[in-house]
Amino acid sequence: MWGIVGQRACRHGSSAMSLQGTRPVIHALRSFSTAAKEMTVRDALNSAIDEEMSADPKVFLMGEEVGEYQGAYKITKGLLEKYGPDRVLDTPITEAGFTGIGVGAAYHGLKPIVEFMTFNFSMQAIDHIINSAAKSNYMSAGQISVPIVFRGPNGAAAGVGAQHSQCYASWYASCPGLKVLAPYSSEDARGLMKAAIRDPDPVVFLENELLYGESFPVSAEVLDSSFCLPIGKAKIEREGKDVTITAFSKMVGYALKAAEILSKEGISAEVINLRSIRPLDRATINNSVRKTNRLVTVEEGFPQHGIGAEICASVVEDSFEYLDAAIERIAGADVPMPYAANLERLAVPQVEDIVRAAKRTCYRSSSLAATA
Amino acid sequence: MASLLRNSGKITTTAGLIARPGFQSGRGFDLSSFSGGAAPFSAPRRFQTTESDIRVDSHCYDDEISQKFSVLGGKVPYSSGMRFTSELPEEKVPCYRVLDNNGQLIDSRNFAGISKEIAMKMYTDMVKLNTMDTIFYEAQRQGRISFYVTTTGEEAINIASAAALKIDDFIVPQYREPGILLWRGFTPQDFANQCFSNKFDDGKGRQMPVHYGSKKLNYFTVASTIASQLPHAVGAAYSLKMDGKDACVVGYFGDGGSSEGDFHAALNFAAVLEAPVIFLCRNNGWAISTPASDQFRSDGVVVKGQAYGVRSIRVDGNDALAMYSAVRSAREMAITEQKPILIEAVTYRVGHHTTSDDSTRYRPLEEIEWWQMARNPLTLYRKWLESNSWWNDEAEAELRSNSRKELLKAIQVAEKIEKPPVGDMFTDVYDAVPSNLFEQEKLLQQTVTRYPQDYPSDVPVRAVPSS
Questions:
Q1: What angle do CA A183, A184, A190 make, to 5 degrees?
Q2: Which of B115, B224, B256, B434 stands 20 to 30 A from A270 (CA)?
Q3: How is this protein organized at the quaternary level (chain B) (predicted)?
Q4: Could you give the angle at the alpha carbon of A132 between the alpha carbons of A130 and A135, nearest 5°?
Q5: Could you write out the DSSP letters of every residue in B152-201?
């Protein structure tokens, strides 16, 4: 349901605040509409890629197991059969190789979608992502553009250990020339994937393995093949007035759960789904903090030099006088991800961590330093 | 003491155009006296059983049923003798050559021929390239440009390969191939503008000198990373293949670049994808101060082709006609058969690695001088032109003098042209200028205007309209 409202807001260029005025309309629509269709993130990604490949013959897929195996996580299911081996390429095991080849194809005018089985493996190709893709338009003074999408699961899954669990959002988001997207819901997945494929710049598309199977309601508008979300715009998933919580990918779900718990304790949290890590929607974040005066940033990745750090800097630079409390950063533990289930649970943020942090900003509980 | 030869005391040359090893050699060319001592290892030895012949079972091929499921894709002979393939072939892969040391055709049957027009342009461009290198190198030494990379000794590879290709063929260079741009029409002024990073530089002053690029001339912008361009070449070739174009891609690299992971991924992948790409290795014996003997232990780079299922040839890189002939054929094969080809052009890096290097510190002067004198690509080719009465001393003097004048003038002009406007710093990061860069640029313009004493006077502050 939010999808339709979000789209209207985008088209009319109105700010998030105008959503208030359209609320009654949504309720009216709801009472007349049939049950909203649900779609998994997996299907959302598959349909988005399918539609874009159908619309533009220059779009093609490349990666390990994307074809015959239907995709390591079945995201590219059915595409080999539909488009043939010319457009869905099963590659040898060489991230550096196929990433470089994708970049070369993009230099020459094709639009590759390169899949990394997880972004942990993208490190083997990071020279091509940064030095060949991100910087080429600049270094060639606009003569070489790189309309490529790098996609794959990012961040922690479940029980996969240190070399399969790192979040690369801050690594890629620090590099000018790249765009970095992180969808949460199926609507995000469809709209942002389409935007990424259509974008003339290189886009790093960070999915999440645990979200692939989750279902979200999608409106007719989202299901339309022309649906597209703007890059660089965050989405306010839940409005609130006491504290702003920013999150992306799987943590959006956690933040929403935390907001639910907080509301029972009288704290109204505003949850922002970043959607776009680079460019970061600083305007939406700052507007929200100016309204609530408190901020909790949430991410799964390592804390140092993370997304939360950049958001803190932005808010301190632009909205310092509006802060009533120190900003709280919730991030993963500063250790390589352990495997044992109990340790893994302790190494990633949980809903309770977000709730406690929000309470600390509202002075409802003392800071950890004070109790030490 | 560094070895002159690529891991050998002997490279056989052959006048015939061969794409596979095993051809009987013509005349041997023994340069072991220049290695200044024993070659780092002895002649290849084969590990043999004590019996004189390897016994192979009569029913030596796999039976029908297991053949179907063979991971090796077909018939594989079995052998009851345990035989390790030697690390080096019995004989080094022969090196294709058309002209002998006196610039005479060795065997006219094995050379397809060349029109006088192209032959002449090849020589004049080789001279222009050589002159450009001398003058720009001097300019760097005088402090007028910060950095330069010469191509000295590799003029034949540059110009002859360019001559054998067509304008639609995409060039993916390393950084020692400006000759291809020269052949295709990049002017001395274009080269100078890039080296001086002035406002007429096509690259908008974004890169160090010699990082040329031209979309118009189908020459990808030079990047500093080594061998990263090889997978790019394969990707671009795949694009050509999908479009069904009558063109190929040529990716250049050096002996050092063949050690990079990207080289292996590119060759392997190109073979699997059946991409129309030519991999052209300039084996010039040196990667900065690392001699080829420290770079790999194979028989050069040519043998690596077969390892990936890529057709390959070794060519004398200092023989312009051999280069022309080989690249012509390779192009034909790459396009009509849609497959990659590997060419190893054996040559010598006469100059230093770059202006930041002094190669006399790690190799003997006699070695450099020998190559400069005995196997100079310009001298060799000139002898052939003169034997056809197409060239003479007068023409040489005139060409050299005119080239020198033109290049000196280009430098003088380039030096005086303004640097790019400050606004150019913020464009092309993305397709459209994002808002944060808009603001940064405005802020910078304001600061420079307000505090001119803190900024150099030759930085133009005019705002550049965003696209």
A1: 55
A2: B434
A3: Heterotetramer of alpha and beta chains.
A4: 65
A5: TT-HHHHHHHHHHS-TTSEEE--SS-HHHHHHHT--HHHHHHHHTT-TT-
C-alpha separations of B394 from B48, B397, B398, B401 in Å: 61, 5, 6, 11
Does residue A133 contact residue A146 with C-beta atoms inside 8 Å?
A: yes
- The structure tokens listed for A302 are 């390592």
B341's CB contacts (< 8 A; 6+ apart) are B277, B278, B279, B310, B311, B312, B313, B330, B333, B334
Q: Across all residues in chain B, what is the average pLDDT?
A: 86
Q: Can you read off the two tokens belonging to residue B240?
A: 């050509």
Dihedral of alpha carbons B229, B230, B236, B239, sign: negative
User: Which pLDDT score is estimated for A80?
Assistant: 96
User: Nearest CA to CA, how far is B43 from chain A (Å)?
Assistant: 35
Greatest pairwise CA separation for chain A in angstroms: 63
CA-based nearest residue to B176, from B238, B256, B96? B256
The closest CB to that of A143, out of B215, B232, B266, belongs to B215
- Categorize the per-residue pLDDT at B240 as very low, low, confident or very high, splitting at 50, 70 and 90: very high
Compute the count of residue pairs across chains A and B with CB atoms less than 8 Å apart: 147
Name, in order, each residue with C-beta under 8 angstroms of A302's C-beta and a sequence gap of 6 or more: A166, A167, A170, A331, A332, A334
Write out the two tokens for B255: 């002996």
User: To 5 degrees, how large is the angle CA B62–CA B63–CA B65?
Assistant: 120
B194: chain A residues, CB-CB within 8 Å? none
Q: How far apart are CA B58 and CA B177, in angstroms?
A: 53
* Contact call for residues B247 and B256 (beta carbons, < 8 A): no
Cα separation, A15 vs A290, whole angstroms: 14
Return d(Cα B441, Cα B178) in angstroms, integer: 34
- For residue A369, what pLDDT is reported? 56
The token pair at B457 is: 């006077």
Q: How confident is the model at residue B42 (pLDDT cuts 50, 70, 90)?
A: very low
> Does residue B223 register a pLDDT over 60?
yes
Burial class (CB in 10 A: 0-12, 13-18, 19+), A353: middle
- Residue B381 is encoded by which pair of tokens? 């080719």
Query: For residues A156 and A348, is the Cβ–Cβ distance under 8 A?
Result: yes
Q: What is the pLDDT of residue B67?
A: 62
Give chain A's length: 372
Answer whether B225 sits within 8 Å of A199, measured CB to CB: no
A215, β-bridge pairs: A40
Confidence of residue B466 (pLDDT cuts 50, 70, 90): very low
Residues 6+ apart with CB under 8 A from B87: B44, B297, B298
| A88 contact partners, CB below 8 Å, separation of at least 6 | A60, A61, A66, A67, A76, A79, A80
Query: B28 exposed, middle or buried (CB, 10 Å; 0-12, 13-18, 19+)?
Result: exposed
Cβ of B213 within 8 Å of Cβ of A200? The answer is no
Segment B244-266 shows an average pLDDT of 96
Among A93-97, A127-131, A191-195, B112-116, the minimum mean pLDDT is found in: B112-116
**DSSP code of residue B24:** P
Tracing tokens 């040559």 back to the chain, one arrives at B347
**E-state strands within chain A:** 37-40, 59-63, 88-90, 111-115, 149-153, 179-181, 203-207, 215-218, 235-238, 243-247, 269-273, 276-278, 295-298, 328-330
Q: Check residues B349 and A19 and name the one with the higher pLDDT.
A: B349
Q: What pLDDT is stored for residue B73 in this prediction? A: 74
For residue B276, the chain A residues in CB contact (below 8 A) are none
Which residues of chain A are at the B interface, by a Cβ-Cβ cutoff of 8 Å? Answer: 60, 86, 89, 91-92, 94, 96-110, 112, 127-128, 131-132, 136-145, 176-177, 179, 199-201, 232, 279
* Residue A296: strand, helix, or coil: strand
Neighbours of A343 (CB within 10 A): 12
